[in-house]
Amino acid sequence: MAPPSVASEATDRPILSPRHHVIRKLRRSSSALVGGSIILLFLLAATVGPFLVQYDPLKPNLTQRLKAPGALHWLGTDFLGRDILSRLLYGGRISLLTGVVVVGVALLVGVPIGVIAGYRGGRVDNLMMRAMDVLLAFPGILLTIAVIAVLGPGLLNMMVAVGIYTVPSFARVTRAATLRTKSLLFVDAATALGSHSPRVIWRHILPNVVSPVIVLSSLRIATAILTASSLSFLGLGIQPPSPEWGAMLSDGRNYLRSAPHVATIPGIAIMFVVWGFNLLGDGLRDALDPRSKA
Questions:
Q1: Domains of the chain
Q2: Residue 59 pLDDT > 70, yes or no?
């Protein structure tokens, strides 16, 4: 029998709901705090920043070309005299929007495929997963280049191409979580009580699939931003003169000796955003891991 002090302490300790447990874990996770702070900073800069800058990101000024960072242009100017800070803030909108849209498309397509394949099994599962295996057989960047070669370059086509490349990851993770959940007793009980398949999927399968999907989404946003920047660097993404971090990096590579800030500044922005989403994904993975509740 436990001592009275220990028993009273265990009795007085509040019982946390799963949501409050996750929030507490996130608050204690240095990875989640650092990653979330970086992402919040870039979101605020992309949302509010363009209204505060005084230079047009598209208007060239050849008398100010390749200026180093200074009082007039805090981050310097590019080879056409355009303010890099203005272009960086406007380009942040495009890069962040690309990551969110790509993951949104992958969620809308990949999650239903994974849930249906895992729940139905048999030929349906084999057919859907073999289609995903075909997409996974191609290296990601080559698959996106092939899709853009068919659709043509541009922001919308780039989002579609990266979204197609991202769908198989969500489908396979969702299928694995569905197979694990389908074997549990409460799903068998719901089926035995006469619940139809759509109700079982909506009420019992999907809530248990959310956690790994959230973690994968945060990680895949970083991958989508990096892939979109790579395509724009190659000239297959958004077209000039629209500001985009990958295109800005491509424009500055010819001036690495004379004006290295033109290429290094957008490269650092890409690095920090991708790092922030990866840190947030690590924190979410630890917080949503049910084994951490023990």
A1: 41-49+73-293 (1.10.3720.10)
A2: yes
